[in-house]
Amino acid sequence: MILGIESSCDDSSIALMGLNLDLIYHKKITQELEHSKYGGVVPELAARLHTAALPNLIKEIKPYFKDIKAIAVTNSPGLSVSLVSGVSVAKALSIALKLPLIEINHLVGHIYSLFLNSPVRLPLGVLLVSGGHTMVLDINENGDIAVLVETSDDSFGESFDKVAKMMGLGYPGGVAIENLATKSTKDRYKFTIPLKGDSRLEYSFSGLKNQVRIEIEKSLTNGNKDFADIAFGFQRAACEHIIDKLSKICNQRKFSSLGVVGGASANKYLRGRLLEICDKFDMSLLLAPMEFCSDNAVMIARAGVEKYQKGNFINLNDLKISPRSSLSSIYL
Ligand code: KG4
Ligand code: ZN
Question: Is 326 a domain residue?
């Protein structure tokens, strides 16, 4: 089996996956509560919590030590102090148990969440919507990844987090905004869709966030703290922006399958809109199981299985963290 370790942001997670893709163990300790009062992830706090959590998780899998063939660990991208925690644990275990190391790009890990217990099927279009990234990817039959669209400012998930913070809903904001939007009774807020009619293939959420900020302030001035209608209008505009640029791409190239990954891919309104676009462009929609949309070590172990089978290991001294690395020159 392969041990997967994930600590790129605010979740400490480890998983054991058999080479036949059986999931043997998975546990995740999330730090949401601790960061919630600050309205976002505090790196120093995240690092301290990883350092406390990871050794306890490793203790739990001691009975399996003899069956582990390699250690796969997220080393990019992410918060540097968080990545270091997982990579240090991986290196210590590698020395103690004499096991090879496998480096995993977190974004590649998310893509593997589509294939946790099945072989990878390529080629594939991918929409990656997380707290750190918003991208459309084109993965060819060899696994080469081309980034077609990125965000020029906030990511999709981050915009939910920031709007939630403005509304006093804590961190992370995605689920809170989605739930609040279901309570909307009046379709009052028609926010401008970012870059609509603009030929640029890029995402941008900061302008939308500012439109929302103005409406929240107006509402507060009027003594109204019920933001359900604003949440609904915001979620619709943010999802419409995703669909608008995705449609432009689909008009230019044909994907037979579209995979949607990342924490924000759990958003049900977005999933509904994606079903429509897949129908329109005759693509099959691939989704990760709900519980594995957000960060987890299962997807890291799954990516590790693939690299193990290809003999793709990294020396202990060459394994470094790379907080900003993107997907250029990375393949599946
Ligand atoms: O993939 P992930 O767990 O971490 C990163 O790699 O960034 O994604 C977390 C992000 C957060 O911004 C969170 O607010 C967002 O995903 N998110 C959602 C939903 N669930 C999580 N955004 C919108 N709707 C949701 N239901
Ligand atoms: Zn992630």
Answer: no
The amino acid at residue 69 is K
Domain membership flag for residue 266: yes
C-alpha to C-alpha distance for 258 and 285, rounded to whole angstroms: 5
The span from the CA of 89 to the CA of 101, in Å, is 11
Question: Does residue 331 form part of some domain?
Answer: no
Annotated binding site for Fe cation: 106, 110, 295
Residue 18: predicted pLDDT: 98
| 189 and 255 fall within a common domain | yes
Q: Are residues 129 and 191 in the same domain?
A: yes
List the domain range (segments joined by +) for residue 194. 122-287
Residues annotated in a binding site:
106, 110, 128-132, 161, 174, 178, 267, 295
Q: Please tell me whether residues 244 and 127 are part of one structural domain.
A: yes
Give me the phi and psi of 13, to 5 degrees please.
Answer: -145, 145
Tens digits of per-residue pLDDT, 111-149? 999 999 999 999 999 999 999 999 999 999 999 999 999
Number of domains in the chain: 2
CB 199 within 8 A of CB 149: no
Residues 160 and 262 in one domain: yes
Atom of ligand 1 nearest to the CA of 106: 6
Are 273 and 155 found together in one domain? yes
Cβ atoms 285, 278 nearer than 8 A: yes
Whether 160 lines ligand 1, by a CB cut-off of 6 Å, is yes
Q: Residues 34, 177: one domain?
A: no
pTM of the predicted protein model: 0.96
171 CB within 6 A, ligand 1: no
pLDDT digit string (tens) for 223-280? 999 999 999 999 999 999 999 999 999 999 999 999 999 999 999 999 999 999 999 9
pLDDT at position 331, please?
Answer: 84
Q: Over the stretch 269-299, which tens digit does the pLDDT of each residue have? A: 999 999 999 999 999 999 999 999 999 999 9
Same domain for 217 and 301 = no
Same domain, 160 and 239: yes
Neighbours of 155 (CB within 10 A): 23
267 lines ligand 1 (CB under 6 A): yes
Q: What span, in angstroms and rounded, lies between the C-alpha atoms of 91 and 330?
A: 22
How close is the Cα of 242 to the center of ligand 1, in Å?
Answer: 15
* Structure confidence at residue 176 (pLDDT): 97
